[in-house]
């Protein structure tokens, strides 16, 4: 697996992880059984859950003790099961998506390296991939945009090049930007984009 594919997968992995954490927090912060206990007990529950010094295992142990004290053991165990099952399902789906994205990336790379075709043919093949695997294509397109942004930052982060050299760097990034726009999102790059890369490396007009 090359470095670009690893970077694409990393972007996707972090996005899914963020979604998992949001689900985890929302389920634990607002469980239905908190409505069945006293205000003092709710505060005790939140003190345990929001305690950043506890490990997850320690939190579960203390929450089980809290549940036993408040006669909601079944509800708390059900919460543990729901969250755990959802995490397992999300990880399985993530593994499937990573595999699908990896395969789609190979197809896309092979297509873009094929010089025995015209640009319209290349776009037609990309549209075919988009139609057959819309979700995978959207993930790949988003990740590619992030890669292009990182590339633009790397170009412009070079130590204070002279004005002509800086303009050459900006043109390189702009050309990469044009290729991305025409290939993936089919939008029109801004005529001023090459002049504004310091602040807006992907300034486009849809």
From TrEMBL:
Segments forming a coiled coil: none
Record bears the keyword Transmembrane helix: no
Keyword set includes Ribonucleoprotein: no
Keywords annotated in UniProt: Signal
Xref: InterPro entries: ANIS5_cation-bd, SXP/RAL-2_related
All copies of domain SXP/RAL-2 family protein Ani s 5-like cation-binding, residue ranges: 41-147
Signal sequence bounds: 1-19
Domain of life according to the entry: Eukaryota
PANTHER family: DUF148 DOMAIN-CONTAINING PROTEIN-RELATED, PRION-LIKE- Q/N-RICH -DOMAIN-BEARING PROTEIN PROTEIN
UniProt name for this protein: DUF148 domain-containing protein
């Amino acid at each position: 697996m090359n470095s670009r594919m690893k970077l694409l997968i990393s972007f996707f992995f972090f996005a899914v992880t963020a979604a998992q954490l949001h689900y985890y927090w929302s389920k634990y912060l607002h469980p239905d059984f908190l409505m069945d206990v006293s205000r003092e007990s709710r505060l005790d529950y939140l003190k345990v859950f929001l305690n950043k010094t506890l490990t997850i295992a320690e939190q579960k142990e203390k929450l089980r003790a809290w549940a036993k004290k408040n006669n909601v053991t079944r509800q708390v165990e059900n919460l543990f099961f729901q969250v755990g099952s959802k995490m397992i399902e999300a990880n399985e789906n993530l593994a499937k998506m990573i595999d699908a994205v990896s395969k789609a990336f190979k197809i896309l790379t092979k297509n873009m390296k094929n010089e025995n075709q015209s640009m319209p043919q290349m776009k037609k093949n990309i549209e075919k991939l988009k139609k057959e695997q819309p979700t995978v294509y959207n993930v790949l397109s988003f990740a590619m945009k992030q890669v292009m942004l990182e590339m633009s930052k790397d170009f412009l982060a070079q130590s204070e090049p002279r004005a002509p050299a800086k303009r050459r760097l900006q043109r390189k990034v702009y050309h990469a930007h044009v290729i991305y726009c025409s290939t993936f999102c089919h939008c029109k790059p801004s005529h001023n984009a090459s002049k504004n890369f310091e602040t807006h490396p992907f300034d486009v007009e849809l």
